[in-house]
Amino acid sequence: MTAARAAAILLAKELRLEFRTRELLNATIVFALVVIVLFSFSFDPTAAESRRYGPGLLWIAFLFAGSLMLHPSFAREQSNQTLDALRMAPVSPFAILLGKMLANFVFLSLAEVVLVPVFAVLYNVSIAGVIGRLIVVLMLGTLGVVITGTVFSAVSAHARMRELLLPLLLLPILAPLLIAAVEATASLFAEQPSLDRTWLAFLAGFDIVFLTASWLLCDFLLEE
Amino acid sequence: MKNFQFLFEAWMAVWAVFLVYEFSVARRVARLRDEIDHLKQQLGDG
Amino acid sequence: MKGRLTITALVAFLLFFAGYAALFIAPDERTMHEIQRVFYVHLPLWAAMYSALVVAFISNIGWLATRKPMWDWLAVSAVEVGVVCCTGGLITGVLWGRPAWGIWWTWDARLTTAFILWLLYISYLLLRGLLEDPQRRATLSAVFGIFAFLDAPLVYAANRLWRTQHPAPVIFGDANSGLDPTMGKVLVACIAAMLAVMVLVLVDRYRLERLRYEVDELRLAADARAADSNSATARSPR
Question: How high is the ipTM of this complex?
């Protein structure tokens, strides 16, 4: 079985599992909404201020929500020891990791599909003209979050205090991604929307570096 | 010469950081050495 | 023991010489005068920190490749020492910035990178503290350590790119540009001294880790011995 096919099957399994109850998805969306609304109390969202603070808070909301959502990725496997079953199956460890990364990517993207329009409405930001480029930025950023986040979910799955540990490990690593994503988004929300290709290249580079590292180190993540 | 106070503080701060760390390491080493002796004795008797 | 004493004496002498040079031989700086001499501690601390982190990175790879415990001992020692140096660097940065430029903190690329690295490697230490099984602890922290090291240049690049878009007066950079040759020589001496101190502390910490391992092994042996004697007495009540 090729790694791609195995990953696709695992992805389907994760999606089926989640959509049965949708509890994780709902909780993620609600949490991000709460963060966005709470932030609005810290400044008066006039158009200029929204443009200044909006992108930052949008991405922070995604990062917080994402790190909560990524935790069960491997923790869920532990309660029924399904990870052992996966390990014994003739699938490469990278396929297992990839399947989970793709599933997390789908979940986080779904959350963003709901949250971005809500954000645009609450903060009076016009996204119609930049929607295409915004989607590219969102996708590249989300990829970075789920790649590192899934790996760290595996790392922290065996530790005590995993719910707190995952954000603790993840957020410092994502600092460069946060900077790049916020800058790119901010330039798209500006009066004269523009997109600096440097930030896009940076995001893509970030994704490639950590995907490669995950691929090289995946055996160690899933070993007994 | 007013800046000299900050310079002194910075120097002392760095010394303090290193010394505190060295002390913590040394203390743990001493404790572990004691425990090793104790355990070796135990194994010697039993 | 004698070798250790000699080396410590040598390092102490190097420190004394470097300190003297920094305080008295180095020429006075035009605008900042005395406080600029913090530079001779500040920069060597960064040099020591980055060296420690490189050692940690190599150790992480060493462990994953060979599974020899010495790599794990070296990894945690190097990260701890690196965090200590980083703390020193951040403190001296603050204590330099305040009198020299009137600000406690500046979000310039280098300082921000250092701060994020500090957080990153403290997370590494926290991770180790929360993983109980020794094999797993070594392996998983090695993976995280590699990710952290890969992240470091990305952090710096992001901050630099950001700074070019939101320029602010470059503060710590100016002290480097156009270094007076005497300053340069004093700086080299100070870096050498700091690296020597760092290596000494690193070796101590490494020895501590090796002792811990010995203690764990002895404990296991003692427990096994106790279990044997228990089962022996259990078998023979006649």
Answer: 0.90
